[in-house]
């Protein structure tokens, strides 16, 4: 039986006949599926290139009713100035990207500043992704609960809430806030300020731990400032606060970015860290160990968190309605609060 010439090889079936395999094997090989051996994938791709054949991925996705893409969403209803270049976002995104691409999927990265309650519906109904990983609940908890009630393949990095209805992965933030505060109280600090945004479930939980630790010790907190997650915004807020000459010997910050901004403002105000004011951050982003003084912080295992997010999303894509994950925080002691 004659084989078609180079210009006549125009279907998966033609490549399959040349390779001596099934059409489904060719389809998977051209899509990069790890289900097909490396030797077979290479042989099929060599044949496709030799005959000028390209897989029509869009048509294939429409036929299979999937996109082979995962959406990564950063909702910023609470903080329009926060960028994806934020150290926490960058670290988390890198680990998630490793996990998703290892499974042969593409990424669709979206930074959302919600202007109505339909932003998540639009992404779910767009047909552009098979599932969604949401990094942070922001102030969009009601939207996440409503949409996840009708869309299973969605997982969220954030605080586990009662009856939330979706699968979340995160740290025990109440415990983290308490551990940070007990560390400072144990050093004899008695005028400790909490710095963090009030509208984010994770940050609210960290503040609850801060308050609980003070209550245990019978000490009154020095107060709360609603520091944003942007370095300049947090810095300006600390400058204004310090100008009022508060009685202050410790700061528990809701993120490392906020803690670093606090250390900068304290130095410019002529106060030494940790001699005058000890500072504890939250996250343990890579920069925390490199700054001077190095930052004492509450470590969230972001690599493990990303692995859990990816694992649970793909389990949900397979129909498994898995339980939320709550990881233990870890105090990392460095120079800012030794």
UniProtKB/TrEMBL annotation:
Gene3D superfamilies: 3.40.50.2300, lambda repressor-like DNA-binding domains
Alphabetical keyword list: DNA-binding, Transcription, Transcription regulation
GO molecular function list: DNA-binding transcription factor activity; transcription cis-regulatory region binding
Residue ranges of every copy of the HTH lacI-type domain listed in the record: 11-64
UniProt xrefs under InterPro entries: HTH_LacI, LacI/GalR-like_sensor, Lambda_DNA-bd_dom_sf, Peripla_BP_I
A Pfam cross-reference name: Peripla_BP_3
Record's protein name: LacI family transcriptional regulator
